[in-house]
Amino acid sequence: MASASHRFLGLDSSTQSLSAIVIDVQTGEVVANHSIAYGARLPAYGSPHGFLPHADPRVVHSDPLMWVEALDLLLGDLREQGVDLGRIAGISGAGQQHGSVYLARSFDEVASAGGWATDRALREQVAPLLSRRTAPIWMDASTSAECAEIAAAVGGDAKMVALTGSRAIERFTGPQIRKFWKQQPADYQRTAEIHLVSSFMASLLAGRSASIDPGDGAGMDLLELKTGAWNQALLDATAPGLGSKLRPPVPASAVVGEISPYFVKKYGFAPGTPIVAFTGDNPSSLVGMGAALPGKVVVSLGTSDTIFAAMAAPRTDPRGYGHVFGNPAGGFMALVCFANGSLAREEITRRFGLTWDGFARAILTETRPGNAGNMLLPFFAPEITPRLTQPAVQWFGSDAFVAGGDAPAAARAVVEAQALSMRLHAAFIDEVVDTLLVTGGASRNAGILRVLADVFQARIVPLAVATNSSALGGALRAAAAVGGADWQDLFSRFCAPDTAHAVEPDPSTRAVYAELGREFDGRVEAAVASSFVKG
Ligand code: XUL
Question: Who is most buried in 118, 222, 254, 437, counting CB within 10 A?
Answer without folding.
Answer: 222
